[in-house]
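Case study 2.
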Amino acid sequence: MATAPTKAARHGSLKMQFLIDKYKENHPGEGPDLSPDKIAQWAIEKHLWRPVPLTPKEQLRRLITRCFRETYLIDPQGREVRANLPIMEEEATEDGPKLRSRWFPIFSAPANVARASFSLRRKAALADVVQLQFDFMSWTENNVHRDKLDPMDYNFNKDLAELSESTEYVDNPLNEDDDDDEGELT
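Prediction:
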């Protein structure tokens, strides 16, 4: 089955799919699983790809953005949370308008920024769930093994409740006084 680009595919994804397809053409005995490491090594050796040079400013901007995204802190309630909230704004660049992020420290972000940031992340989570459901349905209807899986449950409320439970445990539960009638362990 050929991989066809979709309206959602970005230009960069099309380039990478081209490399993957070329690799598969040149390595017909490999698969069905593929190694990105092997594909990258082969494409570089065959001079099918070269990195696009980035300006120092663009390279540093990407690193700073990653730092904002990957920085966490422990809140007063003991939860590990992202330290910064992003919002997206259109910015005029030499290459035309681009969406760029602005980052706010989580506890000093105004409500409108927090709402916009959480809404952005919720939309991204929904897009992941929608794609997961499409992939799940397609696998169920088309897998060569004709296997079936139970339907996916996308209600995360139970998961969230479980994750909010205490993770502190008694060092030795056998020494704890029990008021119930479970009996004694010997």
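Residues 111-142 form the longest helix (32 residues).
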